[in-house]
What we know:
Helices cover 26% and strands 28% of the residues. By secondary structure, the protein is an alpha+beta fold. Strands 1-2-3-6-7 form a 5-stranded antiparallel β-sheet. Strands 4-5 form a two-stranded antiparallel sheet. 36% of the residues are buried.
Amino acid sequence: MMHRPYVMWPHEVLRTKAAPVTEVTDETRAIWDEMIVAMDTMPGVGLAAPQLGIGLALAVVDASEGRGQAVRMANPEVLHASVEPRVHEEGSPNLPGVWAKVSRPRAVTVRFLNEQGVQEDRDFVGLWATSVQHQIDHLAGKMFFDHLTKMKRDMLIKKARKLNRG
């Protein structure tokens, strides 16, 4: 299965709040399936619909060892976040070739509509939690580098532009 291309920074959809999903349909499930293919192709541990140019509040996360355990989420929101931080090097296929250390809560409780369209609350810890928060940022029109100082962010974007000119 193919997937549509990643939109490249600074595409407008990456800075736009994603539209909430009113109900989970077969079309929603097909988008999730395409997103999982795109995530596994990267390879990455999560993907948000805006990264493929789809302005809907949909995300997938799979930080499992063997893969194939993707959690499909519509309208994910953090209900609770741990005080204890976790630092992880993050990147994005929308700004290829650059990564930065980002500190986020080590554990989160997230509410979302699952594959069956049922509201679910689930706890995520470690890399799962980092990825879920990264995707929720995308759905709010934020990129991982928005967590950096202005100077670090500007340097990162400049480096990415140089790398991606070729």
